[in-house]
## 1
Amino acid sequence: MARPDCTVCGGTGWKTVERLEEDEKPKRVSWIKPTSDPDVMRRVWAVPCDCTGDDRAARVMARARIPKRYEHCDFDNFDTDVYDAARESAGWNRSLEQAKLVAEGFARDYPAGTETGLLLMGPCGAGKTHLAVSALRQIVLRGHTGLFYDYRELLKEIQGSYNAENQTTELGILEPVLTADVLLLDDLGASKPSPWALETVGHILNSRYNERRITLLTTNYLDSGPATPAAPAPRLPSGQAVSAAREDSLEDRLGRRIRSRLYEMCRTVELFAPDYRREVRQAGRVRS
């Protein structure tokens, strides 16, 4: 928002300049303006006034639909030295550090040499959304279009568009999802799979894949159920063994065809760490 008392733009939010960097020229409006010499004309460009820069980041976050809960997420405040190094599972910290390096490198290099997105897999509270939002934030602040959607929220919005009383349409919701330079789909597979949901997410992913657009995904579901220590199987009074319930895999939630597509679309990054909120929140730190 421009300052009403700005002496440069007069509260309009725009100022004129006579020179721009080459990569900025196509993004700005220009025209020929006479100078004090009536025989000399000079091209000028309209650019955002400096007084609008104070809330630019907030406006960019809003356009990208990044929730306020995650607006603070950045690589600088992603802690990779969280868990007690003396514990048997000290590899948790190394897992977080490696995931951060991959996500940070992806955001830094985008779009040069970036042909695949990222699929961040791991348990609840491991920091997947924090890293994904950090990458999206860095990319959109450089001027690329980006969009954040929670998987369940997206499906509900599309379903809601079928209501005759709703002012939105399915095409109106899907168009930015399909065309954004970078789409972040959070909590993939969270809702119970249905033929309609699988068809919808398959359409989104295939369309973006075919148009070579980058997709970032986070999910709590792994490619196989988490390994558990061997233990005697419980038995009924009759002596019959009872099989333990198996947690769903990502393929169970999305189907084999979509999971196969994701191998082509994304680099898989697994975070092996317990729930940060449960393990460390007592120290007063908060992670998304």
## 2
Amino acid sequence: MRMPLIAGNWKMFKTRSAAAEFAAAFLQNYTASDVEVAILAPFTNLADLVQAFKSSGVKIGAQNMHFADEGAYTGEISPLMLKDLNIDYCIIGHSERRQHFAETDEVVNQKLKAAFRHGINPILCVGEVRSERETGQASAVVTSQLNKALTDIKAREAAGLTVAYEPVWAIGTGLTATPEQAGEMCAVIRQILIDLYGEETADQIRILYGGSVKPDNATELLNQYEIDGALVGGASLDPVNFLNIVQF
């Protein structure tokens, strides 16, 4: 049985002081349970959050990283640097990285390999834009993204993967895939993983849903059979809202 994962993606929000306030408020009411919780924060907050949550069981992760260990890549953060901070997770291939920073499937593949090489658990994001959904291409797009991202990734590595299905048209728009749409696509993803790695490995991989997840829709979404948790955006910025989702 896969343990559900509720991961909060803070995106480019929260100064160090704001992050400290969140941690204090969240921990005041948080009790560890059979749901894993992770906070994926800006680089400037990672060291502080690792310290703040060190005894809570809450995992801390980054939102991006470079695929090289070091080099002349001004402004980038390497997997070695993240590992040195004792973070657990890193988002790879978020649609905002693809859209605004021209990340290709090939770059995503390189980053996945780097994450596995350094023992960082990657959360691989896949999802279609609205026009692709409306023209019936959603499954083909997600299948292509997964196959390219996982090129030359071995089964022993893939067992530590988390996949987040985030329809791009539902990110930050207030629109949400219906529970049925989300469940159907997560089932497609599960089958792709089975085709690539076999049932035993595929069964170890968690599949999350992301895209305008809020306290009032989390339970219905997370009760879908193939959905193992959520990648939460805006609602994760408020400790009360995030805690309500964690306690779905």
## 3
Amino acid sequence: MDFEVFIPFVEHLGFKLQRFEGGQAQIAFNPQIEHENSFNVVHGGASMTLLDVVMAHAARSVEPAMGCVTIEMKTSFMRAAKGPLVAHGTLLHRTATMAFTEGRIVDSEGQLCAHATGTFKFVPRLPVGKGTHALNKLKTD
């Protein structure tokens, strides 16, 4: 399953959308050496990006025509993240303009590596194919 819109940073990290429906999202991430920190495990910033994206997609899964922007995010790291990872996002509650979510990252053994909560605001988004980045991507395809 492809992401609906071109997000350059997400594409650079190699995230793969696996689920996007009913308040749930799932994204796979196969980290490479350039995603590691000095301890040779996934950098916390890469994990936080994964959590941010999966929670936003969980929020958007009930309102796919809208975009959403992060208002607040809290992340807790339980263990070092290594190897293939899967992030799960869940929409906990929504209002007309806001979404309250949680996300978690598990490793290939199902061990919880990180957990986050996030608040997102629904905003209008550009139609698919609009915007500078999407047009630049089309030029290179």
## 4
Amino acid sequence: MQVPLILTLTLDDQSFVHLNALRKKYFPPERNYLDAHLTLFHNLPYSQLAEIEGRLEQLSQQQEVFSLTASEVLFLGRGVAFKLESTILQLMHKQLQNAWHPYLIPQDKQKLWPHVTIQNKVSPEAARNLQQTLTSSFKPFTIQAEGFSLWKYLSGPWELYRQFPFLS
């Protein structure tokens, strides 16, 4: 089946559970059919699957688990996200962009803006209120990046295709 592929960063279990609990609490339930995630590429062509898998295998076998910092609670206009920072992630993403440039959509050619959305598709007022509430007690925290997850996009939900763990 020739479906678009989505690449996300695999987060450590403790961070994932925390972020996913917030997403389940604050994301409108009728629109929340995905778990918390950090998207690296939104639409990779299935026709390039062999090259994509080969590149991810190679990169993941050279990359050790690394840290990201959740540095800020962001207001998205109609939602809220945690801003994540990592020089390693930016460099890795740029390397993949360069390798896959010929078949990337315009959105995936842009500079990576790492974040995990915990609320979306709400009124600006509801989003601003949540952002202010979360910011009042926010302290930066660390998340471990443990690998890549490659997903099949199924016109809404995603189906996990394969994971590429980093060295531990």
